[in-house]
From TrEMBL:
Keyword field: Lyase
The organism's place on the tree of life at top rank: Bacteria
Name of the protein this chain belongs to: Isocitrate lyase/phosphoenolpyruvate mutase family protein
Keyword Nucleus applies: no
């Protein structure tokens, strides 16, 4: 897990692609990405469930067990923790750590568009760190993701830093002044969501961002590619063969 932490201290930000199943994770690892995350939208949609409503605990654990076989560190999106009870969320974190998972994202946004109380979220972060001290806890605040909460951002970043988080994640943030303010508010690595046309990795690096996540972008692009292929009858250039996919997955059997 120290390897995953070290990836946040390099000269360039950690570019983190987000998988939704074992095959996508294996393909991204083979492509050379040094760590893999998961996308809660991809996991939920693949199971026919809505995202961010706490209904994919079992799917998330099953995916984590599969991805733990990858030869690179894996961080798992656990939405809000799939429970209102701190002890349940702490137990989930400990279980993920027991698989060899390197980190988690834990968010304060709620499906009704509100933010959970900052003090409760801070207590949750503390409980997770007590249960799984080696797990990299990326504390996500949805203050920019959900309308009307932007003014709470710095207060929440500072609170989650003080609670023992290992990194902070502010999806939706893009303006230079906003990014600078978040980076200045915490000594922890700051994670930003890649927003095509609004941010660049080089630009974020200059502002001090240490991690850039793709979120659900790759999953949504894969859906589009599947539909386009079905409509046109021609696969995208470079699409893996049947044998390629078999090799990707079967190659994990000897790992971990």
């Amino acid at each position: 897990m120290s390897l995953f932490r070290d990836l946040h201290e390099r000269d360039t930000p950690l570019l983190l692609p987000n998988a939704w199943d074992v095959a996508s994770g294996a393909a991204l690892a083979e492509a050379g990405f040094p760590a893999i995350g998961t996308t809660s939208l991809g996991v939920a949609a693949a199971a026919g469930k809505p995202d961010a409503e706490g209904g994919t605990r079992q799917e998330t654990l099953a995916l984590a067990r599969g991805l733990a076989r990858l030869p690179v560190p894996v961080t798992v999106d656990v939405e809000g923790g799939f429970s209102d009870r701190a002890e349940d969320v702490a137990a989930l974190a400990a279980e993920l750590a027991s698989y060899g998972i390197a980190g988690i994202n834990i968010e304060d946004g709620r499906s009704d568009g509100s933010l959970g109380p900052a003090d409760r979220q801070s207590a949750l972060i503390g409980a997770i760190k007590d249960a799984a001290p080696g797990l990299f806890v990326n504390a996500r605040t949805d203050s920019f993701w959900l309308p009307g909460h932007e003014a709470e951002t710095l207060e929440r970043v500072r609170a989650y830093t003080g609670a023992g988080a290992d990194g902070v994640f502010v999806p939706g943030i893009a303006e230079e002044a906003d990014v600078r303010a978040v980076v200045a508010a915490t000594p922890l690595p700051v994670n930003v969501l890649f927003l095509p046309g609004r941010v660049t990795v080089d630009g974020l690096a200059e502002l001090g961002v240490r991690r850039v996540s793709y979120g659900s972008l790759l999953f949504r692009a894969a859906l589009r590619a599947a539909v386009t292929t079905a409509l046109t009858g021609g696969p995208p250039e470079g699409a893996p063969s049947y044998a390629d996919v078999e090799r990707l997955v079967s190659g994990l059997d000897g790992l971990r």
